[in-house]
Amino acid sequence: MNEELEQVEIKVSYLEAQVAELNEVVIEQQKNIDAMNIKLLQVTKKLEELIEEVGSPSRPNRKPPHY
């Protein structure tokens, strides 16, 4: 019975280590997601500014440079 208990304790120890490692991965992924969300907001804002600028009536219609 003692040996079985020792085996269970060893398995629990390994599982605890795996959970801690997976937790670190999740934390790092969340940091990456947060950074990407900030970048997405910046790009979205810039795109909206460009759309407003292009749609502005004060800006003359010009042909693209390849014409």
TrEMBL record:
It comes from the Bacteria. Residues 5-53 form a coiled coil. InterPro entries: SlyX. Keywords: Coiled coil. PANTHER family: PROTEIN SLYX. This is SlyX family protein. The lineage of its organism: Bacteria, Pseudomonadati, Spirochaetota, Spirochaetia, Spirochaetales.
